[in-house]
Design brief:
The complex is a heterodimer of chains A (525) and B (229). Chain A is an alpha+beta fold. Chain A has 14 helices and 27 strands. Chain B has 229 residues and is α+β, with helices and mostly antiparallel strands. Classes of the chains: A alpha+beta (525), B alpha+beta (229).
Chain lengths: 525, 229
């Protein structure tokens, strides 16, 4: 072990993956998080993790995983990055198994289930709690390095500033939320801070801890973002107090069917419209079709998930946790009655633009996991987020380690902290939801941008709220600039895809203004 | 339905706690204590924001553990209409140092897991016999509810409490016997010897983990040196 050290902000899946990788490379890390890993959003991931392990006798291959991921993402991401991801997947899942993740298995043969956008069984799973099970195994593994002093956790520490000088990361400012003391952390830094759930507070399947503040700070510090218009609406969510609750895609992977009532009779619209994959079409397609049938005067306005034909042995062996959760929150047994579902915000394909090596445009600053825009193109396939987080954490750590050096942590003067206002957060959410729904148009997006500009001019805005609004405006401007429909970005005024836009939407901040540009994924960095 | 939310509060850097009451009218029958706390903070009714920890809002992360009407539970799991009476008393977990209001410092939980050396030494050995138990154990939230209700646990003591048992059980079941000797030794010293077998933790786990089943199996492997199933 030498004195090299890397800061990791966020202790979810990508953060833990980065910490383990750095430890194996002999590089120390500081794992900074507002809460322990057990509270990270990664524990909410349910259905599984994709890898072409080919354990189900279907002659699956990494090439098919690559092809499905590219197709699901509407060919927006760089082939090299997706190829690296999908080729690494089998080793990653085997590694997780050896770390004790209790994947459903048959005498060591890891079982796989069907998931959306993939014809073959490719998704390894632990019932419907895969994220939690993987996190537990990785938390225990990281503890080994904590005990050796290689990983140092900074619990109840929150990122409050990213300090950049001449395109180079100088330091990050971190607040100990217990003592209110602030510190400057020097050294290479990986942002594993999650997606932009906090911009849609209460309207997503994510956690309240995932505020999006880190992204807003990064944007104001000059970090380039990409593809912010691509927001994944998961087809099967239900509203519970304070949030949307996910009903895992595993429900459909194991036989659940979507229907609406048309002329008073069940209409299994996905099966009729898409005979090949039916209910397991990619999420963007399913959510859009649900939107259309829910707005069709001939239909009842509701969509139901029918899991009543799932066999007892599947419920008991693969979905018992999901059933328990549905009964607990909805007071309905999915085994005996269909559940009303509707699409809800679940994942952000866009985020900090990173190279294949997970570098940002700021030297010394890296990003991984949902914080980064990588791998998922215009629409993420279910089962690829856990994979992307683990793989991205590994790559970012390896890259950051190459230039890592000894770096200090010093106390800095307690400063007036900028606090986000609940009222402003609610306004930001409501305005964004109006313009960035499943179906969008020019008029709606322009109106949204105008309202955000007006909100930005409000009196007494805190600096963090202003930064958040500015990043919100870039989401709108990205959606406005992409005059086509692709993946999760569906423009009713431009319903077709256009090769002119087979590019990433790149946004950056310059003198308070948002600049939008399009570049091919291969040209990035 | 109107509720009187009575919160035991404490200012930062103070050692004096005080009760403060807020009126809350529920919007739906499924409103929880978490709903009420979020609402109160969003309205600006409290002079000072009510500090509490919250993350997943669906019983999957353990952040919002607190004492509600005398019982340790998760705020997101405490449905107001299911609690007794219209006066809801909310207090911070008492086994941990208070930081501010309902926020406590649960660092001791993680420090103890390190002292127990809870990690795998070699690749995991997974088998069918303990698969269900490992799945259940791996679901532990590290929320601290089981420690709050335990008559034997106190922060800084030699007995580390039930929260360390699920991880221990996972690692014992997934390790070769030669590799878990030290875990077994530390388990005996810090769990088995201090556990009064009151099993007060049995019905308090928000995840519904069968603590008795885990204890029985962990004791069998670590203390009674029974062969694995």
């Amino acid at each position: 072990m030498n004195d090299k050290v890397v800061n990791i902000v966020g202790a979810g899946l990508s953060g833990l993956s980065a910490a383990i990788t750095l430890s194996k490379l002999g590089v120390s890390s500081r794992l900074i998080s507002s809460m322990p890993s057990e509270r990270a959003q990664s524990v909410l991931a349910e259905g599984g993790i994709n890898a072409a392990l080919d354990t189900m006798g279907e002659n699956d291959s990494m090439a098919e995983h690559f092809a499905d991921t590219m197709k699901g993402g509407c060919f927006l991401e760089s082939e090299s990055a997706v190829r690296n991801l999908t080729e690494s997947a089998p080793d990653i899942v085997r590694e997780l198994y050896l770390l004790g993740t209790p994947f459903n298995n048959d005498n060591g043969r890891i079982l796989l289930r069907n998931f959306g956008g993939q014809k073959k069984k490719r998704t390894a799973f632990s019932k419907s709690s895969t994220g939690k099970m993987i996190m537990t195994a990785l938390i225990d593994e990281v503890r080994k390095y904590e005990a050796k002093g290689i990983v140092t956790r900074y619990l109840h520490h929150e990122l409050v500033g990213i300090n950049v000088s001449n395109g180079q990361l100088d330091s990050i400012t971190v607040l100990d939320t217990h003592t209110q003391q602030t510190y400057l952390f020097y050294g290479n830094t990986i942002l594993c801070t999650g997606g932009l759930n906090g911009f849609f507070e209460g309207a997503t399947t994510g956690t309240t801890q995932n505020t999006g503040n880190a992204a807003a700070l990064a944007y104001k510090a000059g970090v380039i973002f990409a593809d912010l218009e691509f927001i994944q609406y998961h087809p099967t969510t239900v509203g519970i107090s304070g949030k949307r609750m996910l009903i895992s895609e595993a429900a459909r992977g194991e036989g659940g069917r979507l229907f609406t009532l048309k002329d008073g009779k069940p209409w299994y619209f996905m099966e009729e419209k898409y005979p090949e994959l039916g209910n397991l079409m990619p999420r963007d397609v399913v959510s859009r079709e649900m939107y259309f049938v829910m707005h069709d005067d001939k239909c009842s306005g509701e969509v139901f998930l029918d899991m009543t034909s799932i066999e007892d042995k599947v419920w008991n062996g693969k979905l018992s946790d999901l059933r328990r959760e549905i009964i607990s929150y909805l007071k309905k047994d999915p085994k005996t009655e269909p559940i009303a579902v509707s699409p809800g915000i679940h994942f952000f394909m866009g985020g900090i633009s990173v190279s294949d090596a997970h570098e940002t445009n700021i030297s010394g600053l890296y990003a991984a996991g949902e914080a980064a825009c990588k791998y998922h193109g215009a629409n993420r396939l279910g089962g690829n987020s856990l994979l992307g987080a683990i793989y991205g954490g590994k790559v970012a750590a390896k890259t950051a380690s190459e230039t890592a050096a000894e770096a200090a942590v010093i106390e800095t003067e307690e400063r007036k902290l900028s606090v986000s206002s609940p009222a402003v957060r609610a306004q930001l959410r409501d305005i964004l939801l109006e313009g960035l729904g499943i179906v969008r148009d020019n008029e709606g997006i322009i109106k949204m941008c105008r309202r955000l500009e007006a909100l930005k001019m409000s009196d007494d805005l805190s600096s963090i709220d202003r930064d958040r609004i500015e990043l919100g405006i870039t989401m709108g401007k990205s959606a406005l600039a992409r005059k086509e429909s692709r993946g999760a970005h569906y423009r009713i005024d431009f319903p077709q895809s256009s090769d002119d836009y087979k590019k990433l939407t790149i946004v950056s901040e310059s003198n308070g203004n948002c600049c939008v540009d399009f570049i091919a994924a291969e040209e990035r960095m | 339905m109107k509720y009187d939310i009575v919160i035991l509060r404490r200012d930062r850097n103070s050692e004096k706690s005080y009760f403060e009451s807020f009126e809350y009218t529920s919007q739906t029958p499924s409103d929880t204590v978490a709903t009420a706390l979020n609402y109160l903070n969003s309205t600006g009714i409290p002079d000072r924001k009510i500090e509490w920890e919250c993350s997943c809002l669906q019983k999957k992360c353990g952040a919002c553990a607190m004492v509600i009407c005398g019982k340790p539970m998760l705020a997101c799991d405490a449905v107001l209409s299911g609690l007794k009476g219209k006066s809801i008393t909310i207090e911070p977990l008492k086994k941990f140092p208070i930081v501010c209001d309902l926020v406590v410092d649960r660092s001791i939980l993680y420090d103890n897991l390190k002292k127990l050396k809870l990690w795998l030494k070699e690749d995991a050995l997974q088998g069918d016999s303990y698969a269900d138990l490992v799945f259940e154990a791996s679901g532990c939230l590290q929320c601290g509810c089981c420690l709050e209700i335990c008559p034997n646990f106190y922060s800084g003591g030699n007995f580390f409490g039930m929260s360390a048992v699920p991880i221990t059980m996972r690692l014992l079941s997934e390790s070769d016997k030669k590799d878990y000797k030290e875990i077994a030794r530390l388990y005996s010293r810090h769990i088995f010897e201090g556990c009064g077998k009151s099993l007060s933790c049995k019905n308090v786990c928000p995840k519904g983990i069968d603590t008795q089943e885990l204890l029985v199996n962990a004791n069998a492997l670590a203390v009674w040196k029974r062969k694995k199933k």
